[in-house]
User: Which sequence fits this backbone?
């Protein structure tokens, strides 16, 4: 009898220990005994990681930025940071050659995204009271020295977009290169405004397009103490997707404008008082302001205009300080 009871106890102990029964959980998932982690019955050895997504909430200010790695990535990335060098396409047949006027951009989201894609700017940091002051220099008309005097007196640095004829020309027997040297010495940026000041979408051939920019760059760099900065202002404010692509491929940023007015007709200069009123009325935060240096009106009102802007709380920054 004792032997029978002992045998029954042994059998009962074996059954309670689960001996000879498949090792399963109640939720029907297999258990990896080496890790004690559950693995679902339909899982594989692959653990795909979602591709990083770029922040498109501010397409302009974030143009050219590199997306941050996704937080789910466990391994530290060993890849080198993305270069600012533009992507070079082997097929440009899909890039439109249709001319676009800058004024249309304010109502065109597609065009704004186009500028973002090719590192182009129509305005800077719109969250702050900042002005980026720029001057176009197609030729010298005797007012640049006065403009430089005013900028120096007010401790403001600007960008001067020059054409090749400006670089190689002279005014009243004085070479314009002396003004270029002064711009550089006084901390201003020298930008590119093309050789012939023609609408850039008309140059569909890449070699011809490049010459419009590189010849100005070479001319400036040949002036002692001067160096061309990689900013290009398209003449007439017109562009195409192809022209933006060509410009970026050369390492340049296309610079348009937030504010400009009809100041370029030297034979019909606007009234100084009404011009100043118009400029102040249309001033916007983060604006890139375009003024023509050939304008007598601009030379006349610049000092009081800068002082009024400062009194309104605006500060001046250069294109080197544009949002990246």
Assistant:
């Amino acid at each position: 009898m004792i032997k029978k009871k002992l045998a029954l106890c042994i059998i009962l102990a074996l059954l309670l220990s689960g001996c000879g029964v498949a090792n399963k959980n109640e939720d029907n998932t297999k258990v990896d005994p080496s890790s004690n982690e559950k693995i679902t019955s339909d899982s594989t050895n692959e653990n795909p990681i979602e591709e990083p997504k770029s922040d498109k909430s501010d397409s302009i200010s974030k143009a050219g930025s590199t997306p941050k790695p996704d937080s789910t990535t466990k391994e530290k990335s060993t890849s080198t940071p993305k270069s600012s060098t533009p992507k070079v396409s082997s097929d440009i047949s899909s890039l439109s050659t249709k001319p676009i006027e800058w004024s249309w951009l304010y109502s065109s989201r597609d065009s704004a995204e186009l500028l973002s894609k090719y590192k182009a700017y129509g305005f800077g940091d719109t969250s702050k009271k900042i002005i980026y002051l720029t001057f176009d220099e197609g030729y010298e008309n005797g007012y640049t020295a006065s403009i430089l005097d005013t900028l120096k007196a007010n401790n403001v640095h600007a960008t001067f977009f020059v054409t090749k004829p400006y670089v190689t020309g002279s005014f009243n027997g004085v070479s314009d290169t002396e003004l270029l040297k002064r711009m550089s010495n006084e901390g201003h940026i020298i930008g590119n405004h093309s050789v012939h000041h023609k609408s850039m979408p008309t140059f569909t051939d890449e070699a011809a397009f490049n010459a419009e920019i590189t010849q100005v760059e070479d001319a400036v760099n040949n002036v002692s103490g001067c160096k061309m900065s990689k900013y290009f202002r398209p003449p007439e404010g017109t562009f195409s997707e192809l022209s933006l692509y060509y410009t970026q491929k050369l390492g340049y940023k296309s610079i348009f404008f937030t504010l400009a007015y009809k100041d370029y007709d030297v034979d019909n200069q606007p009234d100084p008082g009404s011009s100043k009123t118009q400029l102040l009325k249309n001033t916007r935060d983060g604006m890139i302001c375009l003024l023509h240096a050939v304008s007598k009106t601009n030379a006349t009102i610049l000092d009081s205009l800068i002082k009024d802007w400062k009194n309104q709380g605006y500060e001046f920054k250069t294109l080197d300080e544009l949002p990246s």
Notes: The chain is about 30% helix and 15% strand.
